[in-house]
Amino acid sequence: MEALFLYILKVNALLAVFYILYIGLLERTTFYRENRFYFLFSIVISIGLPLMYITKTVWVAPIVPVDHPAQLTVSPSLHNETFPYAFYIFIISLSTSILLIIKLLKNIYKTKALSVKYQALELNGIKYYDQAHIKTPFSFWDSIYFNSKNYSESELKVILLHEEIHIRQKHTLDLLLIQISCCIFWFNPFVWKLKSSIDKNLEYLTDQTVLDVMNEKSLYQKTLLKTMGFPMSNTLTHSFNQSFLKTRIMKINQSKTKKTEFWRFGLPLAAVLVFTVLFQIKTVAQVKQSNSYQQTDTLGPPTPPTPPTPPTPPISPALPSIPPTPPTPPVEPTTTLGVQKDDSPIYKNKKSAIYTITAEPLEANPDFIQLDPHSTAGKKIIADREKAIAESKIAMQESKIAIMESKRALEEGKKAVEESKKAILESRKAIEEQRKMAIEAAELAMNALKNSVPSRAAAIKESEKLRELAMNEHLAAIKEARIAIDAHKSTMEQLKKDRKIVMKERLALIQQHLAQ
Questions:
Q1: End-to-end distance of the chain based on CA atoms, in angstroms?
Q2: What phi and psi, each to the nearest 5 degrees, are found at residue 243?
Q3: Nearest to 286, CA basis, from 3, 69, 55
Q4: What is the DSSP letter of 230?
Q5: What 3 state SS string does 259-326 have?
Q6: How far apart are CA 505 and CA 137, in angstroms?
Q7: Could you say which DSSP state residue 23 is in?
Q8: What is the pLDDT of residues 73-107, one digit of tens each?
C-alpha cells in the first residue's frame, strides 16, 4: 500500500511540474504542434518514469559478530494504525475513479449512438452527419456532426475544414488520454488544468492549420463569432464553438514565435533528469568478502559448520544395516568483539571455544579461561576490535553526512513547495484575469449583436422610405412627361391648323394676283 501511495504521489507531482513549466515557458508561444507532443510526453513520462529505477551498488564492510549483542527493541509501527485509514481513502478514490470512467464510457456511447441512429455521407474515410437538431458542429473519431441550415455555404466550408483537420490529426486520442488521466487522478487539480490547456492547444493548432490552407482570417473570425451563442457539446468531442473565443482570436492574429525559442523545451527535459537523480536511484548495499570475517545475515554467534553427510548404508537382504555415526565436526574458535576499555580482560570459553572481551571479570565462571593480551590470540583479538571501532567511526561519519544531506533536501523541498504555492497563486490570478477578459469579450460581442439588430431594422426602414420617395418622384416625372407629350401633340395639331389656314390665304392671294 505504501509503494502504491508513493507511486501516485510521484505521478501527480510530475503532472503538476509539467503543467507549471508549460504555463511559464510554452503557453505564450505559437509552437502548437510541438506543444501537443509536449503534453503527450508529459503524460507518458509522469505515468511511466516512477515505475523505473536505476540501481546503484555500494560496497560495505562485513558486520563483526558480538558475543552479547544488544537487544534491539522495535517500536510498534504506525502502519497497523494508519492502514485502515489509508485503505478507506484508497477505496473512496478507487470508487470515484470507477464512477468517472463509467461516465466517460457513457459519453462515448452517446456520441457513437448518433452514428447508428442517422445515416451518414462518407467521403475520404470521414463520415458527415447533417442533422437539424445539432446546434453547434463537432467531431469525434472519424465522424462530423453539423446542421447546414444554420450557416451559409462559405461558413460551412470553413467549419467542415476545421473538423476534418481534427479528425486527420487524430486529436481524439489526445482527449481520451487526458480524460482517462482525469478519471484516475481526479483529486489533482493540476490534471484538470492540464486537460484545459490540451483542449486549447488543439484548437490553436487546428486554427493555425485552417488559416495556412485558406488564408481568410476575417471569414474565419466571423464564423467563430456566429457560433458563439450555441451551447457546447460534451468534453470528448472537438467542438468548433469554444468558450475561450477571445483567446483564439488573439492567437490567430499573434505573430509566430521565432525558432530560437526552442530552448524552452530543454527545461522540462532537465526537470525529468533531476527527478530521476533525486527519486529514481536505488542504492543496494553489497558486503565485501574478507578472509578475516565471515558474512552472516543475523547478529549473534556464528553458526557452527555443517557436519558432513553420512554415507549411504549398504542394503542387506537379510538384516538392515545400522548407519555409522557421523564424525563430530571440529570446533573452530571464533572471536566476539565489543567496544570496551583497553585494559579489558580477554577470555576463552572452554565449551564453545569462543574468545570474548568484557569489562566484567569472568574468573569465577569455570567455563572461561583468561588469556594473555600479549599472546598471538590476544593480539589478534585486540587488532580485530580496533578495526571494528575504526569501521564504526567511519559509519558514524557517513550517517552524519547523510543526515546533513537529508536536512538540505528537506530545506530544498520546503523552498520548492513555497515556489509551487507562488506559482499556483499566480496561475489562479492569470486564470481569473483570462476569465474576466473572456466575459468582457462575450459581453461586447453580445452588445454588438444586440446593437446590430435594431440598426439593421432602422436601415431597412430608411431604405424603404427612400425607395418610396424615389418611386413617387419617378411617377411624378412620368406624369410630367405625359403632360409634356400631350402639350406637344396639341401644339403640333395647332401648328398644322395654322399652316392650313396660311396655305389657304396664300392660294387666295395667288388667285387674286392671277385674276388681275
A1: 155
A2: -75, -20
A3: 55
A4: S
A5: HHHHHHHHHHHHHHHHHHHHHCEEEEEEECCCCCCCCCCCCCCCCCCCCCCCCCCCCCCCCCCCCCCC
A6: 94
A7: I
A8: 444 444 444 457 778 888 898 999 999 999 999 98
56 backbone dihedrals φ, ψ, rounded to 5°: -120, 120
What does the pLDDT look like over 440-456, one tens digit per residue?
Answer: 877 787 777 777 667 67
Q: State the pLDDT at residue 18.
A: 92
Cα 2 from chain centroid (whole Å): 24
Name residue, grid cell 458563439.
228
Give the global pTM: 0.51
- d(Cα 87, Cα 89) in Å, to the nearest integer? 5
Per residue in 14-23, pLDDT (tens digit) is 999 999 999 9
What's residue 287's pLDDT? 64
In contact, 382 and 373? CB cutoff 8 Å: yes
The 3-state DSSP class for residue 335 equals strand
Rounded to whole angstroms, what are the CA distances from 182 to 104, 177, 179, 196, 293?
10, 9, 5, 11, 56
3-state secondary structure of 244: coil
Q: Which residues of 21-58 are buried (b: 16+ CB within 10 A; e: fewer)?
A: bbbebbeebbbbeebbebbeebbebbbebbeeeeeeee
Q: Which range among 302-316, 331-345, 368-382 has the greatest average pLDDT?
A: 368-382
Grid coordinates 578475516 are at which residue?
Answer: 292
| Torsion angles phi and psi, residue 418, rounded to 5 | -60, -45
The residue written with cell numbers 488543439 in the block is 202
| d(C-alpha 351, C-alpha 366), whole Å | 10
Nearest to 292 by CA among 207, 372, 381, 420: 381
CA–CA dist 55, 458 (Å, integer): 80
* C-alpha–C-alpha distance, residues 12 and 1, integer Å: 17
Q: Which of 470, 503, 508, 448 is nearest to 229 (CA)?
A: 448
